Amino acid sequence: MAEREWITASAEETTELGRRLASSFRAPLLVLLTGDLGAGKTTLAKGIVSGLGAAREEDVTSPTFTLVHVFHNHQTVYHVDLYRITNFHDLETLGLEDLFDRPAILLVEWAEKFTIRADWPVIRIHLEHAGEDQRRIHLEGAAEEIVSQG
Q1: Which of 79, 90, 135, 139 has a CA-to-CA distance to 42 between 20 and 30 Å?
Q2: pLDDT band of 147, cuts 50, 70, 90
Q3: Residue closest to 56 by CA, chosen among 67, 69, 39, 38
């Protein structure tokens, strides 16, 4: 499994990293985002979704209350936020298993709450505060070409 780590100095750099990473993402793919509140998960997701050409950066917001945002363009991208999920029953009622019926990119924030098994390739990205506006972003994934980006 390949690993890579970056330090970004601003929200703009975190978004730009997401755009660069997205250039190597191919469906089907499960992207699991973890990190504390305010660590930059949604900011990175903005870059990924816009980098995939699925939506404009300004159209990507945290799906904290709707839980799932769907973007369609050249490909389907699901952006899921599990912050408000408290147990397996809550997760089960979202019907996320149905998202695996067709190839897509599935971005999951608060992925430590994601207990659904999938056969799709997985990339794990952990974000953490690294002082002031800096973020440490650690990526683990099976695809070597993904970590060679940027």
Answers
A1: 90
A2: very low
A3: 69
